[in-house]
């Protein structure tokens, strides 16, 4: 089994100075890591400085988004090579805020996943249902469609480089976490879908993270579920002590 992942998604937060002092404290406190991976996804403006602060440390760097083209007239976008150039090894793709606030479709997410794989950036692909979809008992249909759409035409060999984050939209930034059982139920469904699409071996090597109001008080229970191999943390990752307590969660 691959190592669990503890990822901080800072979204549109932190100046360069704030980001660097967080990264310094995190790398010093976390030391070397053998049983887990820890990622920081700072805003673009802080990537370069955080990359320097994390150099020779166990902490990896992720972009929060990426365009699928290599270069061109795409004002406001960032390319795979730009993320690699600044030291990213991961990229978050298809976050629900990208999908719902900026109109990202499964086709666009799929193009981005293919571009990330081509450039050897590890894609962290986010999927999840809205409250309305959950209440209409559409959770599995929505998550299944995002999964098959986002991973369209990806080979079983490439699938292994992928990490999925199940992030129910109703739990993001709301303080409402899915219960560990609710999360596990969807994680198990995702694992089954992956098995059917790509075979047992590939499905086993894909890590499925949970995201949505993860905090110090619920991390242990979430990580105790059999199909949860890590977390993507928004709000509770903005404070270094809070994120450290999450990222140091004892593993069973
Ligand atoms: P949250 O965000 O932890 O603030 O709910 C999670 C995310 O959006 O990845």
In short:
This protein has a single domain (5-247), classed as Alpha-Beta Barrel (TIM Barrel), CATH 3.20.20. It has twelve helices and eight strands. The chain has helices at residues 16-30, 44-53, 80-85, 96-102, 106-118, 131-135, 139-150, 156-159, 180-198, 200-205, 219-223, 240-247; strands spanning 5-9, 37-41, 59-63, 90-93, 122-127, 163-166, 207-211, 230-233.
Polypeptide structure, described:
This protein has a single domain, classed as TIM Barrel, CATH 3.20.20. The longest helix is centred in the last third of the chain and has 19 residues, at 180-198. It has helices at 16-30, 44-53, 80-85, 96-102, 106-118, 131-135, 139-150, 156-159, 180-198, 200-205, 219-223, 240-247; strands at residues 5-9, 37-41, 59-63, 90-93, 122-127, 163-166, 207-211, 230-233. It is built from 12 helices and 8 strands. α1 (16-30) packs parallel to α2, α5 (106-118) packs across α7 (139-150) and α7 crosses α9. The radius of gyration is 17 Å and the shape is globular. The protein is an alpha/beta fold and 252 residues long. Helix content is 44%, strand content 15%. The model has no long low-confidence stretch (mean pLDDT 96). 2-phosphoglycolic acid binds next to β8.
Key traits:
single chain; 252 residues; alpha/beta; TIM Barrel; eight-stranded parallel barrel; 8 strands; 44% helix; 15% strand; binds 2-phosphoglycolic acid
* String of helices and strands: EHEHEHEHHEHHHEHHEHEH
Strand order of the largest sheet: 1-2-3-4-5-6-7-8
Main sheet: strands, sense, barrel:
8 strands, parallel, barrel
**What ligands does this structure carry?**
2-phosphoglycolic acid
Number of domains: 1
Total DSSP helices:
12
Classify the helix fraction into a percent range.
40-55%
> What coarse outline follows from CA principal-axis ratios?
globular
How many E-type strands?
8
- The CATH architecture is Alpha-Beta Barrel
Question: What is the CATH superfamily?
Answer: Aldolase class I
Radius of gyration: 17 Å
């Amino acid at each position: 089994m691959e190592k669990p992942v503890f990822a901080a998604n800072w979204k549109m937060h932190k100046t360069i100075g704030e980001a660097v002092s967080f990264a310094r404290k995190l790398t010093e406190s976390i030391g070397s890591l053998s049983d887990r991976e820890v990622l920081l996804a700072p805003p673009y403006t802080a990537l370069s400085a955080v990359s320097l602060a994390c150099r020779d440390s166990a902490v990896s760097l992720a972009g929060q988004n990426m365009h699928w083209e290599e270069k061109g007239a795409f004002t406001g976008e960032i390319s795979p090579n730009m993320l690699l150039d600044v030291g990213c090894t991961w990229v978050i793709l298809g976050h629900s805020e990208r999908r719902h606030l900026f109109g990202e479709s499964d086709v666009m997410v799929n193009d981005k996943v293919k571009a990330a794989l081509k450039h050897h950036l590890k894609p962290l692909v986010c999927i999840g249902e809205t409250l309305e979809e959950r209440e209409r008992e559409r959770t599995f249909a929505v998550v299944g469609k995002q999964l098959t759409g986002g991973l369209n035409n990806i080979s079983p060999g490439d699938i292994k480089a992928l990490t999925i984050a199940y992030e129910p939209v109703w739990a993001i930034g709301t303080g409402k976490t899915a219960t560990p059982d609710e999360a596990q139920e969807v994680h198990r469904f995702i694992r089954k879908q992956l098995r059917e699409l790509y075979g047992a071996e590939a499905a086993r090597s894909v890590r499925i993270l949970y995201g949505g109001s993860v905090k110090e008080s619920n991390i242990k229970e979430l990580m105790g579920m059999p199909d949860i191999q890590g977390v993507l943390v928004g709000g509770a990752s903005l404070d270094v002590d809070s994120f450290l307590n999450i990222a140091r969660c004892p593993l069973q």
